Amino acid sequence: MSLYFLFPQQDPYTIGQGSEMEGYCIDLISALAKQLGFKYKVHLVKDNRYGAMDSNGNWNGMIGEIIRGVSHGRFTSTDCTALSQQAVHEADLAVAPLTLTAVREQFVDMTTPFMQTGIGFIMRRDLASEESTFSLLSPFSSDMWVGVLIAFLLTGVCIFLVGRISPSEWAEPDTEEHSFTLLHSFWYITGALTLQGAGPHPKALSGRLVSAIWWLFAVLLLACYFGNFSSMLHSNNAHVSVKSFEDLANQDVMDYGTVEGGSTMFFFKAYSEAPNKIYDHFSWFIMRIYQHMERKKSYVSNMEEGIRLAQEGNFAFIGEAVSLDLTVARYCKMIRSEEVIAMRAYSIAAPLGSPLVKNLTVAILRLSESGELTYLRDKWWASSCMGADRAHGSEALQPNDLRGLFLLLGLGLVVGLLVALLELLSRARHQAKDGKKSCCSVLTSELSRRFGSGGESAEQDSSDKSKA
After folding, report:
1. Are residues 163 and 76 in the same domain?
2. 69, 99, 129: which is the final residue of a domain?
3. pTM higher than 0.90, yes or no?
4. Per-residue model confidence as pLDDT tens digits over 334-364
5. What is the superkingdom listed in this entry's lineage (predicted)?
C-alpha cells in the first residue's frame, strides 16, 4: 500500500526538500509506517496553509486537499492488509500541527491527538522576574559574589603573609610590633575596596605590589558593578512582573499581541463575543486582553514578527504553547508563561470515512504508551541556546565575564608572595654569609621567628609596653 502525505514547511515539523526532508512529522510518519507496515510518499501542501473555510464554504490548505476528490479511483487501505477501490483524494493524510476543532471534524476525520498544547505567551526573561528587596546585589550573580568574597579573603590573607614574611615590612620580629595583623589586613583592603585609605600602608616592594593589584582589581570591579547597575536601572525603569494572563491583563506598561487572523486571535474574539458566556474571573481578563489588542491594534502579521518584538523587550507575544516552547529552546533570553489556557490538541487528518483513522489512532496510542512520542518531542524541541546568546547588557554578570580580572588578581597575589619570599631569602643569605651559617638554617630560623612563638611574644611584649 502506498499513501500520499501532506506536510507543512515549518520548523521543526518539516525541514528541507525532497529526499533530504526531515523533522518531527517525518519521524512520526516513519514510526507509524513501521508499526502498520505501509509505504508512503510525501509532498508539501501547495499553499503552505493548514486549512480554513472561505465565505463560499470552500476549504484551502491541507484540509482542502484532503476533502477534494478527483474523477478516477485508487486503491486505499481498509485495515492495512486488505485493499478496496475508492474515490481518490489529492492526499490520503495530512500530518501537521493541525488543531482538532469541531468545524474541521465535520469535513474530515481526525485521529487521536499526537500532541497536546494550549495558548501561552513569551517575553524576555528579565521582564518575568520579580523585583527583589536585594536589588543592590542584582548586577552580580550569586557565583560572582562568591568569587568576590573568595578574592577578598585570599587578598587579606596574602597581605598578612607578605607583612610577616618580608623583612622590609617587619625587620625585627623579636623587638618590633607587627603592623599588618590579620584584622588590619582585612581592614586595609576593605578601605581600598571602598576607595578610602586605611593606613599604615605597606613599605615593602612585595606589599606594595599586592596592594596595587588589589586597588586595580577594586577599581575595575566597581566600574563593572556600577555600569551594570546603571544598565539595569534604565532597562527596568518601567519594570513590571508578569507571570500569568491575569498579570498581563492587569498591567498597562508592557504591550502584547498575537498573530492577526490566527486561531489564537479567534479564540479571544469568540470567547469575548460569545452571547451566553459566564462572567467569571477568567472571562474578565480574557475579555480585557482582547479589548486591549483591539484598541491598541497590537496584532502582528506572523509569528516571526511577534518573536522579534518579544526579543526587543516590553512586548509579550501570545501564541500556541508548543510553538513558543521551540522559540524558548532557540533563544535563551526568552521565557514562556507557566500558565497555559484553552487546551487543544494536534491530530492527523484523513478524508471522511477513511478506514485509516482507526488503525492510525491505535498506532499513535502505542507510540505514546511506549514513550516514542515523548522522545520525538525532546529530540526536536531540544534547547540549542548558548551562553553567548544572553543579553549581557541587562543580566547579572557571571564570573566567566570577569575571568581576566580574577586571573590578574591571582597572578598579582602569587607574584607578591614570591617577592616577599625572595626578600626574606636575600636577607637570610646575607646573615648566613656574615655569621658563616647555613642559608637553610638561617631561613628556617627567620620563618620560626615570624610565625612561631617568638614573634607572638614580641608582639605581646610591645602591646604590654604600649598599655603601660
Report:
1. no
2. 99
3. no
4. 889 888 998 888 999 888 888 889 999 999 9
5. Eukaryota
